[in-house]
Each structure stands twice: as structure tokens, then as C-alpha cells.
Design goal:
509 residues, mainly alpha, 3 domains
């Protein structure tokens, strides 16, 4: 953005002064990541302006959030903020056009145009470099002249969160076409649906039917909702700063250069990465939900203790819930779902998870990760069929010991899949090579007991939540005790966070 200002045409004073204003605003209130002081300053200002506007001026409040959301995205890229806004405006027009006609062919054409536009933008920015480079390598391997140069992945600009808001726009077009929802007539409300900054860059994926109705409800200041929002934000900050960023110190060096480390260290790094990715993404989701609550909006809960799942199907009902339900409703079911033969069902599962892997990134590692999860879902279906006529085996697996074994096996399989969850498949294969053949190498400064203490703490929290004990304690504890506890949570996040924090993993998607 700064270079753009420097290169702005001198003769266009209006253009230059407009960009200079946005540069000044960006420098004054940058809003990059939820766990930074810059975001807290930005959010405090938005919160103050939003609730200062009288309740009867509901549309003014919506415009406040739309402008704040535009600034939030422009803090990364001024140009891409206009791209997102432009495609959102086009989706709004497509929806209005579908609502103005009852002709099936015209409605289908408009829905197809909206979906193709969004997928076209997504493919151009996110997958163009990957497919061109693979074509380049394939033609070179065959001795052919590609006629173009290979793209540097670092030079390919991918808008933050493009996969998230693209899926939201597609679901809106499909739902309007199927008449599940009415097309939104208010442009600012529709802009807010796509651009709402708490979920803009890393979800959760929001459905129009759930969000747009909230824009019409009068928002009243509610101290209980404020308390819930602050609690969610603090818990998310603790997950991100005190756990995820701390685990990154252990797993990032190993995943970056697995050949340099010993087998034991690599095993611990895989465990650390499983903890990190959960606390990183669920921490962001908690902060997004908390920020939305403080503004009077409710977003979809994206996680439900996924590492306590007893099988991979249950894992996907608990992990990244907004994505898994989206894939179910807009990919798996349209493909035919569970109807038909078992082989037909297996094919649909594999295709759905392959699309889910490709959604995460244009790289063979993500595609392999999606394929691995598809194969695990198929294996679970086969195992279910094997257990069905065997009541003794089924009963044994449902005991506490059997459930514990199934949870362990599921967590192990999911953790192995996390090894694939990176752009470079070669490094993932190198990690597997170290995991299953004993080799010597470097160790890390972070002691193993610290890693196990973190894992134990996380597991204890999950078990307390699942047992319902925390809900009972929370209802009985006095407000000063709860306030002190959340203050300790914030202090722990600040103290335990590494000096150099990391970005949210899912911001790249």
C-alpha cells in the first residue's frame, strides 16, 4: 500500500489525497490480528462509536460496522478490500435479480453466474499459480517448451480469507435459488453479512439465513452478553498466545527441517502441532464469537472438543463445524450423499474431502490431507458395517475402556493427518520418514515436561467441560471470583506468550 502511494500519479491530486487519507488511517488504527494491541485499539473505537449511535438509528449502526470491516480488510490490502467489496456488490445484484423473476431458467442462469464468478475469483487468486506451475513442470518433464515462466509462490497475492467469504457467497446464491431464503433487499445489510470483520478472514463460515435476520433485530446493550463476549475473547486469547504460540516454538523448527531432528523430537513435534492447530484455530473462533457478541451478533460455534471424538465421523461433527456442515449441505448431499450403494457413498465421501483439502490450499499436501480424511471416513463406514452383526464387539467398544481406545486411535490418526497439513508434501513425507524409523538428530530447548504439562492441561479442561462440571461451577462462583479468574487468564496469556508471536494458521486460507 505504501509503495502504491509512492507511485500514485502526481497529476491526480484527488486520487493521491484519498490514498494518503487511507494511509494515515491505516497508520493510526492498524487492525491486523485479534491478539494484538492494534486490534484492541481499533475494536475499542468501533465499539464506542457503534454503541454511541442511538438504537433507533439501526441502519447507521450497520454502516458503522460496514466501514469498520472495510478498514479492517484494507489494513492488509487497500486494493483487495475493493475486490472483496466489488464481488459482494455483484452477489447482491445477482440475488436481487433472482428475486425479481419466477422463470426457472433465468433463476438458474443467475445462480450459476454468481457461483461461477465467485469460484472464478477464488481459482484465479488461489489456484492459478499452483496449476500453472504443475503444468510448467509437466511440460518440462515431457521435453516441451512451456512458453511461460514458473511463478514464484511468494509473489502470488492471495486475498486473506478468500475461501471463507467465497463459500458464504456461494451458499447465499444457492439458498436464494432454492428459495430457502429471500434475497436481501438492503445493500448495507448484505455488505455486513459478507464483510463483518470478526468472521471475515478466518470464519466461522456464516449462513445468510442465520446472519441477515440478526441485522434486523434492534441491538440493546446487555451486560450478560458483554460478559459472555469478554469471556470468549479472553479464553481465545489464552489459547492462542499461551498455548498455540508456545507449541509453535516446538513444532515449527521440526516441520521446517525434519531431517535435522531425531525421531523422539519429531514425535513430540507432531503432538505439539496437533495441540497448536486446535488452540490456534479454536482460539481465533472464540475471539471472533466474543467480538461478535460485544456488537450484539451471534456467530456459529465452530468447535466442540474435537479431540475427544471416538471416530473420525464424530471428529468432523466437532471440528470446524461451519466448514463440515457446508461441505455436507453444498457438496456431499448434491453429489448424492448416502443414497445408493456403499461404493457410491464412499465415492461421495472421498470427493467431498478432496474438495475440503483443496479448499484449504493449492498444494499437494492439503490435497493429500483431504484424501487421507476421506479414506478414514470410508474405513470408519466399513468398520461400522463389520461391527453391526457382532453385538459383543459393538458392546465392548461402547464401554468406557472401549471408548477410551477409540478416542486414542482417532486422535492418533488425526494427528498423523496433521503432518500432511502443509504446502510442501516433501517435508511431510520427511516427517513420516523420521517418525517410523529411529534416527538421531537435534533436540529442542523446550523441555518435554512442558509439552506434556500443556497437553495434560488441555485434556483436563476438555474433560471438565464435557462432564458439565464447569457449567455448574460457573453458575455458582461469585462474580469477583470469576473476574479474578479471567484476569489471571489474560495475565497468563501475556506472560506465557513468546516474544515473537505467530499469525493465525487459518488466515492463509
Amino acid at each position: 500500500m505504501h509503495s502504491l502511494l509512492a507511485d500514485a500519479p502526481a497529476h491526480d491530486a484527488g486520487f493521491t489525497s484519498g490514498l494518503a487519507y487511507f494511509r494515515w488511517l491505516h497508520d493510526l488504527l492498524p487492525a491486523p490480528f485479534f491478539h494484538t494491541q492494534a486490534f484492541l485499539a481499533f475494536f475499542a473505537l468501533v465499539l464506542a462509536v457503534y454503541w454511541t449511535v442511538p438504537r433507533r438509528f439501526q441502519m447507521t449502526r450497520i454502516w458503522v460496522l460496514v466501514i469498520a470491516s472495510f478498514h479492517f480488510y484494507a489494513a492488509w490490502s487497500f486494493e483487495l478490500a475493493f475486490l472483496v467489496t466489488g464481488t459482494t456488490f455483484a452477489d447482491y445484484l445477482f440475488g436481487r435479480a433472482m428475486g425479481s423473476t419466477d422463470r426457472p431458467r433465468v433463476r438458474k442462469l443467475l445462480a450459476t453466474a454468481s457461483v461461477c464468478m465467485n469460484l472464478g475469483v477464488l481459482c484465479y487468486f488461489k489456484y492459478r499459480g499452483f496449476f500453472l506451475n504443475e503444468l510448467y513442470e509437466g511440460m518440462r518433464a515431457l521435453g516441451m517448451d512451456p512458453g511461460f515462466t514458473k511463478l514464484n509462490p511468494l509473489e502470488v497475492i492471495v486475498p486473506f480469507g478468500i475461501s471463507f467469504y467465497t463459500f458464504e457467497a456461494i451458499s447465499y446464491a444457492v439458498d436464494v435459488y432454492k428459495r430457502k431464503i429471500e434475497p436481501e433487499k438492503s445493500l448495507p445489510r448484505f455488505l455486513l453479512f459478507i464483510l463483518f470483520f470478526p468472521h471475515l478472514v478466518a470464519g466461522p463460515i456464516v449462513r445468510a439465513g442465520d446472519f441477515l435476520v440478526q441485522t434486523r433485530r434492534p441491538k440493546r446493550w446487555n451486560w450478560l452478553r458483554v460478559q459472555l463476549g469478554v469471556q470468549l475473547f479472553l479464553v481465545g486469547a489464552f489459547k492462542k498466545m499461551a498455548i498455540a504460540d508456545r507449541m509453535a516454538l516446538y513444532c515449527d523448527p521440526v516441520f521446517k527441517d525434519p531431517d535435522a531432528f531425531g525421531t523422539v523430537t519429531v514425535w513430540f513435534a507432531v503432538l505439539a502441532y496437533a495441540v497448536r492447530i486446535y488452540c490456534d484455530f479454536s482460539g481465533y473462533s472464540d475471539m471472533a464469537l466474543g467480538a461478535a457478541h460485544l456488537l450484539g451478533y451471534k456467530l456459529t460455534n465452530n468447535f466442540n472438543m474435537p479431540y475427544l471424538a471416538a471416530n473420525v465421523s464424530e471428529f468432523w461433527r466437532r471440528w470446524h463445524i461451519s466448514l463440515s456442515t457446508w461441505l455436507r449441505d453444498y457438496v456431499f448431499i448434491p453429489l448424492g450423499g448416502s443414497r445408493g450403494s456403499a461404493l457410491f457413498n464412499y465415492r461421495n465421501l472421498l470427493l467431498t474431502m478432496l474438495i475440503g483439502g483443496l479448499w484449504h490450499g493449492a498444494a499437494w499436501g492439503y490435497i493429500a490431507w483431504g484424501l487421507a480424511h476421506g479414506l478414514m471416513l470410508v474405513a470408519h463406514k466399513v468398520f461400522q458395517g463389520f461391527c453391526e452383526p457382532r453385538p459383543r464387539l459393538k458392546a465392548a467398544l461402547e464401554t468406557w475402556a472401549g471408548t477410551g481406545l477409540r478416542v486414542f486411535v482417532t486422535f492418533f490418526c488425526v494427528s498423523m493427518c496433521w503432518v500432511l497439513f502443509q504446502p510442501e508434501l516433501s517435508k511431510a513425507l520427511a516427517v513420516f520418514g523420521k517418525l517410523f524409523s529411529i534416527q538421531k538428530g537435534q533436540t529442542l530447548l523446550l523441555s518435554n515436561w512442558a509439552l506434556w504439562a500443556t497437553v495434560g492441561f488441555l485434556l483436563a479442561c476438555q474433560l471438565i467441560l464435557r462432564s458439565g462440571l464447569w457449567a455448574k461451577l460457573h453458575a455458582r462462583l461469585p462474580a469477583p471470583v470469576l473476574g479474578t479468574g479471567y484476569a489471571v487468564c489474560l495475565c497468563a496469556a501475556l506472560v506465557l506468550a513468546p516474544d515473537a508471536g505467530t499469525t493465525f494458521i487459518y488466515f492463509q486460507f
